Amino acid sequence: MTKTFLEPFTERLLRAGPQLAGYSWPWAGRLWRERLELDDNLSIWADQTPPAPMRAPLRGGVTADLAIIGGGFTGTSTAYAVSRRWPERRVVLLEAATLGNGASGRNGGLMLNRVNGCETVDAETAAQIDRLTRAGIDALCARIARHALPVDHRRDGTVTVYTSTERAEAAHAAVEADNRIGIPTRFLNSAELRRQLAVEQGCGAVLDPGTGQINGLQLVRAMAPLLEAQGVQIYEGTPVVNVQEGQPVVLTTPQGEVRADSIVLATNGYTGALGYFRDALFPLHSHVLATAALTVEQRQQLGWHGLAGFADDLDRISYASMTDGGHLVFGGGSNQAYSYLFNNRTRYPGGTSARAQASLQETLRRHFPGGAELPIVRRWVGTLGMTFDRRPLIGVRGERRNIYYALGYSGHGVTLANLAGEILCDLYAGDDCRWRGLPFVQGRYTRIPPEPLRWAGYQLVTRLTGRSPRLHQPSGGSAQIKKW
After folding, report:
1. Of the residues 40, 46, 55, 89, which has the fewest C-beta atoms closer than 10 A?
2. What does DSSP say about strands 186-189 and 204-208: parallel, antiparallel, or unpaired?
3. Are 237 and 97 in contact, with CB atoms under 8 Å apart?
């Protein structure tokens, strides 16, 4: 089949997804039940984070003004914001495993601006989103400094590398348009790029100043004592097995129960196991590797000088960050580097895949031929929460408007999930003026078909096109937020 045939065929297939979802969810949603699956964090970030004693699980019953489900970036940032604004309120945080065990402690470490799924918004909204995400990174770094949190991070910028002359020229024009509306990106021609990052086939790049890299597991773990000092009760090893909406909301755990006036779903790719957003999210497993700490000479051989990280412009995006300690963290770049498991499974068998890891090393060699012999010390998988159009979902729902949520970050969660704490805190206060009109706050979403259509569609589209299934524009299948 030729490319000209494949493109309209796969687009029609993707457009059919929301319609299939409308027909099939009423029966398939009952047939294919999801269950929570957890595994250990094997990332380089875990190696660099001091071990902490696990907090006791919840036993018995407690009451709360606000109960937060999930102990990653979203959960801890929300607990921080709410407990600072209302120190008298009872805030409970429930983590199924240990703090930071999910995507917050397993990602590629990049703190990025902008929001996935919002590439086609108007100029005014684009500028607003850029300002908000830059302010979000500022606020995160200020929080680390204010409380002297022991968190490794850097902010010397990241680049998006363009691998063809045509795309580089288009990116240059986009930078000029960005600059006219106050977005401070900068275009690097191929020679300028090589002086900072000697990536092969780099025809140009867009430098985004103020972006950076962070050890997310250190951040979440360092936040815990601060939250407890602000009165937040934290329970680890406490999965929520049932949510009964009402006033109060009743959360059932294996050994206890929480009765809360309001709750926050801060579970991203794991949210479907709670019965929420099953038609909006699918967990995508991103395979990642990390090298040993590189010497100055090894970094010079790579041609890596003074940048926190980069991503390329290909459909199956590859990305990398460099820690202050010299570990190169690398992920993506091929179909094999990303996996979807039937029925939204959130635990990847074996911790990662030999085929995926071999593909990662091949992509790394393609970008950096001098990196072929770099020693690999860690290989792992992180579970992303993806939406059909890559647009995140943040808002409040429920008959009593007491179910808050922030999820579906689609690869940009380091910045946005930490900013989500501020957004949810304002929504909880009943004041959305700072966020009104943003396409990812209190928005609609395009429905994804249930199993077995979901798995079959993912496999078909990725094999035909080499791309992850993505519907670029909302269609008639958009749905109001509901529990499935």
Report:
1. 40
2. antiparallel
3. yes
For 293, the token pair is 């700490």
| The dihedral sign for the CA sequence 372, 374, 375, 379 | negative
What span, in angstroms and rounded, lies between the C-alpha atoms of 385 and 123?
Answer: 27
Q: What is the DSSP string of 402-443?
A: -EEEEE--TT-HHHHHHHHHHHHHHHHTT--TTTTT-TTBS-
Query: How far is 162 from 267, CA to CA, in rounded Å?
Result: 33
Fold of domain 153-210+283-386: D-Amino Acid Oxidase; Chain A, domain 2 (3.30.9)
Segment 82-121, tens digit of pLDDT: 999 999 999 999 999 999 999 999 999 999 999 988 988 9
| Structure token digits, residue 475 | 């269609």
Which residues 6+ apart lie within 8 Å of 482 measured at CB? 397
CA dist 123 to 177, 182, 383, Å? Answer: 9, 10, 32
Longest CA–CA span in the chain (Å) reads 64
pLDDT of 24 above 80: no
Classify domain 1-152+211-282+387-484 by CATH architecture. 3-Layer(bba) Sandwich (3.50)
State how beta strands 403-407 and 256-265 pair. Answer: parallel
Please check the confidence at residue 479 and state whether its pLDDT lies above 70. Answer: no
User: What's the pLDDT band for 471 if we cut at 50, 70, 90?
Assistant: low
Give residue 309's Cα distance to chain centre.
16
- The reported pTM is 0.93
- Report helix, strand or coil for 138: helix
SS3 assignment, position 109: coil
- Tokens 């691998």 belong to 163
> What is the per-residue pLDDT for 9?
58
- What is the distance between the alpha carbons of residues 6 and 273, in angstroms, rounded to a whole number? 34
At a CB cut-off of 8 Å and minimum separation 6, what does 7 contact? 465
- Give tens-digit pLDDT for 129-169: 999 999 999 999 999 999 999 999 999 999 999 999 999 99
Among positive and negative, which fits the CA dihedral 260, 266, 270, 271? positive
Q: What are the domain boundaries of the chain?
A: 1-152+211-282+387-484, 153-210+283-386
Distances (CA, A) of 67 to 252, 405, 432: 12, 12, 20
